[in-house]
Amino acid sequence: MVHGTLEVLLVGAKGLENTDFxxxxxxxxxxxxxxQEQRSSIASGKGSNPEWNESxxxxxxxxxxxxxxxxxxxDSGTSDDFVGEATIPLEAVYTEGSIPPxxxxxxxxxxxxxxxxxxxxxxxxx
Length: 126
Hints:
single chain; mainly beta; metal-binding
């Protein structure tokens, strides 16, 4: 079994469906790898094309087969809206070591609703 750290570079997203009718949405991302969850900052007023350029580190084993990134719209006063999610398979980063920022589809149910750009680096523990 392989153990190590997975570094996720959350670059940004494009073409997201705007869930706020009156103004630009304030998107953020929830990154989940098995039981570990991390949250990006809120891209206030960035609407459908947010940029984060933030890195997140997860402790992983090769039993963690995917990274799920849920995109949310921060709403003050009401619960945050679910924008969509991307599921990124991790098999390739375990064998390659790193994957440069790549575009993945964001879906809501079966419906395509934009894209997200993410880079991955896996560092095995000795």
